[in-house]
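Pilot study result, target chain (130 residues):
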Amino acid sequence: MDIRFELIGPDSRKELRSLYTWLCDDRSLRGRIPIEPVRGPVRPGEMGGDLEAVLALVSTLATLAQLPFSYAAWRDGRRPRSQVVIQVMGAMPGELEAVREAFPDVSVRPIAGDGQGPEPEPDPEQEAGS
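Predicted structure:
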C-alpha cells in the first residue's frame, strides 16, 4: 500500500522537506519502508518541481508499525503549523483502519487505485441486490 503524506498550510513546503529528510534518515525505517519524494510540475525557470508529498511504500502491516513512531517523533520535535493529510492507495480490507488507528491525529483518506481522487463510496443499492 502507498501512504502519501501531504501538508497544507503556510509552511507546508518547508515542513514537507523536513518530514522527508526525517523519514529518510530514520534507521528503523531504512531498508524496510522505501520513502520517496513526490514532485509537482516544473514551473518556468525551475530546475525541478517542488516537493508536493512524501510517499512511503508499505508492503505489510508489520512494516507499517514503525512509521507512526517516526512520524510522531518528527511532529513532536517540530510542531508543524501545517495540517497533515495522509492518502492511502492500495490498502487491503482492514489496512485502512489500521492506518487510521496508527495516525490518530491525522486526516487519513483512501484514494482510488489511479491516485486521482477519493475511493468511491459503496453503493448500498448494489450491495443489497448482490
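One observation from the pilot: The first helix runs from residue 12 to 25. A full batch analysis is planned for the follow-on phase.
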